[in-house]
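Notebook, bench 3.
Goal today: get a predicted structure for HTH-type transcriptional regulator DmlR from Acaryochloris thomasi RCC1774 so we can plan the truncation constructs. The sequence was checked against the plasmid map this morning, with no discrepancies at the termini. Length recorded as 298 residues. Pasting the sequence as submitted so the record is complete.
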Amino acid sequence: MDLSVLQLFIEVMRQGSFAAVARDRNIDPSSVSRAIATLEKELGIRLFQRTTRKLSPTEAGTMYFVQIEPLVEEIQRAKDIATDVSGQLRGTLRVTASVPFGLKCIVPLLPDFAALYPDLTIDLMLTDAIVDLIAERIDLAVRLGILEDSTLIAQHLMQTHYRVCASPDYLRQSTPLKLPKDVKEHNCLRFPLAGFQTRWIFKDQARNLSEIPVNGTLTISNMTALQQCALSGMGLALLPNWLIDEDFRSGTLIDVFPDYEVTATDFRTAAWLVYPSRTYVPLKVKVFIEFLQQSITT
């Protein structure tokens, strides 16, 4: 029985769609359908009920999935171990991160990593959605903020924090900003997540907190776009340090409240390297984790 067909079957069960698996693998959906039909013929059972609108596993298909999934995972684990023993990194490393963090912090490092491991294929999925690592066959994810409790394993990558920033031109032309409460009189460039749109939280050196309502004429769902608008002088923006530290150094953005900590949700923010909980972590994942931890500084 072909292992690749079994892996296709498991992915279809997890994602519930031939088309989704085909997109993930960059193949034609008909190829997935034919592979499943071949498996059904070999087993002598129907694994899925197919209609024009829905794909549903049969009872036999569900039972087969429950039995075969751990076996296929064990076979893949054995393959990973055998490959790692050789000391040569081959195969595909699937990584996911948010679009802004990936573009700013990961993509610039890829040439050096590829030069170190030329036989390893890197599949980088940049998305602001929280990806199901198991269903999407992701080896490693970069997650930002406070981690939810889960069965995933997490390693610390870097501490993060937020700053209120603006361009020098904006600050010259607008009402002076001396205290956090002055933000209420300014145009704030907002991010459409809970907290970010309505108020920013400041903490002074005496650890006193103040919640300041924010208003503005522009809301954008991408932090890199907010950064560009701040650089263009459109208003104040609350952005993470990893995105704007270079702008601070060059003077194209100004840290408006350097004596305050600031956030929209929680002051304890960080970037984490997250991977599926399993007894064996492939060498390719270990190597990439070490590379990122050594290359990315706070």
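The chain has a mean pLDDT of 90. Residues 91-160+269-295 form a domain with the D-Maltodextrin-Binding Protein; domain 2 fold (CATH 3.40.190.10).
Flagging this for group meeting.
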